[in-house]
Amino acid sequence: MSVTQLTDAAAPPAVAIEARRVPPPRRKRCSLPRPLRRAIGPVLFFLLWQLASSTGVLPKQVLAGPATVISAGADLWHTGELQAAIRISMLRAVTGLAIGGSIGVVLALLSGLFRIGEDLIDATVQMLRTIPVVALIPLLIIWFGIGEAPKIALIALATMFPIYINLNAGIRGVDQTLVEAGRTLGLNQFGLTIHVILPGALPSALVGLRYSLAVSWLALVFGEQINASAGIGYLMNTAREFFQTDIIVVCLVVYAVLGLLVDATIRLLERLLLSWRPVFTGT
Fold first, then answer.
1. Which burial class, exposed, middle or buried, applies to 266 when counting CB atoms under 10 A from its CB (0-12, 13-18, 19+)?
2. C or N terminus of the chain, fewer CB within 10 Å?
3. How far apart are CA 139 and CA 145, in angstroms?
4. Alpha carbon distance 265, 250 (integer Å)
5. What is the pLDDT of residues 173-230, one digit of tens each?
6. Beta-strand (E) ranges in the chain?
7. Domain residue ranges in the chain
C-alpha cells in the first residue's frame, strides 16, 4: 500500500470534519431591553407593598402604603419643606465629604508614596478607623457644640477612611515594572507620580470615592440627630414623634434617590476617566 493510500485511509471523513466546524447553537437572549428588565423587580416590590397596604395586611401604623407616601411627598414638595431639607442635607454631606476626602487623599499620598510616611501615618489611621464613628458623637458635641460643626465633622471622619484605604492600596498596587520603565525613560519622582503611579491607582481611588459617598449619607443620618433644626433628618425626627410613617418613608426614599444619583455620577466619571482600561461587563 502506497503512502497516498495510507494517508487517505487515515484521513477522517469529510462529513465528520464539517460536523466539527458547525458552531454551537447560541443561547436565546431575552428580547426585553435591559432598563425594562431592571425595572421589573422594583415595580413588583411596590405592587406587593400597595396590595399589602390596601388589604390591611400591612397596617398604616406600621408602614404607610406607596399611595400615601407619594401623597405626603407631594404635600411636602408643594409647601417647599422637602426642597429646603434636601438642600441643607446635601450641603452638609458635600462639605463633610470635601473635608474628609481631602484629608484622606493627602494622608494616602504621604503614606503610599513614601516609606517614612507609611511608618508615621498608616498604623495610626488603621487604629483610628476601627473606632465606630457614631461613638465619637458625644466627644464631637463637647468639642464643637450642637451646631453644624459636629455634623460636618462626623461626616468628614466617616468619609476619610475609605478614601485613604483604597487610594493607599491603589498606590501600593501599581506594577513595579511600570515604575522601573518610567525611571528608565528618565522620569523623576514627580513625573512617576503624575504619569505612572496616580493613573494606576485611579481605579482604586474611584472605588474609595464611591464608598465614601455611601458612607457620607449614613453619617448624615446620624449627624442630623444632633439637635438638628432643618434637613431630612429633622423631618424624620419630627415625623417619628407624631408616628407619621408616610413622612419617614418619604425621607428614606429621598436618601436612597440622592445616593443613587451620586453613585450614577461617579459611575459616569469612571467611564470617562477609565475609558483606556478594558473591563469585564458580564456574560
1. middle
2. C
3. 9
4. 23
5. 888 888 888 888 888 888 888 888 888 888 888 888 888 988 888 888 888 877 778 8
6. none
7. 69-273
